[in-house]
Amino acid sequence: MSNPPASSSPSRVTFANLTHRNLGTVKKLNSVLFPIKYSDKFYQDIIAPEVEDFCQLIYYNDVPVGNICCRLENKDLYLMTMGVLAPYRSKQLGSQALKRVIKAAASHSKPKVRRIYLHVQVSNTDAKRFYERHGFKEVGIKEDYYKKIMPRDAWILERILESEDKQDPQL
Questions:
Q1: Which of 65, 121, 124, 56 lies closest to 89, judged by CA?
Q2: Span 107-135, pLDDT tens digits
Q3: Cα distance between residue 29 and residue 65, in whole Å
Q4: Taking phi first (over 0 means left), then psi (-120 to 50 degrees means alpha), and beta for anything else, what does residue 167 get?
């Protein structure tokens, strides 16, 4: 009896909190995903206990393929980075990760998160559309946001959290 082809089994998407053990994987992913080199402080901040629900490694069939990293800023959640390796895009991985963070933010109570916001480079219209499909709205442009990449300007996008975000079955 032969085994069925691997493609016939459903794909499995899982998430993991960021720790000292998997921080090297996050650094490697970020070096491929983003045109910016992040500081040691960035990496120490994303493994802090208070952000464990907001900083996740994304696995596809047990392979690390992306991550999402946020930080708390009073009653705001700032989405610092989110990326998925190119061969794994269009598999809803980014959407699933973002929905997890939105749900975690909506149910967070100390502090109560009022909104999630982020910056998107003005040349990255695909990313802007992605966030808009998930309820984010453009609220401005930050000139010279990026120092080492062109174009330097960034859209500021935000999603105000409502109590129904906690209950929304779409999340």
A1: 65
A2: 998 889 999 999 999 999 999 999 999 99
A3: 7
A4: alpha
pTM: predicted TM-score of the whole model, two decimal places: 0.88
| Residues 6 or more apart whose Cβ sits within 8 Å of residue 162 | 106
Structure tokens at 25: 């994987």
Residues whose CB is less than 8 angstroms from the CB of residue 155 and which lie 6 or more positions away in sequence, other chains included: 119, 120, 121, 122, 128, 138, 140, 141, 142
Mapping DSSP onto H, E and C, the string for the chain reads CCCCCHHHCCCCEEEEECCCCCHHHHHHHHHHHCCCCCCHHHHHHCCCHHHCCCCEEEEECCEEEEEEEEEEECCEEEEEEEEECHHHCCCCHHHHHHHHHHHHHHHCECCECCEEEEEEECCCHHHHHHHHHCCCEEEEEECCCCCCCCCCCEEEEEEECCHHHHHCCCC
Q: What is the pLDDT of residue 134?
A: 97
Catalytic residues: 78, 119
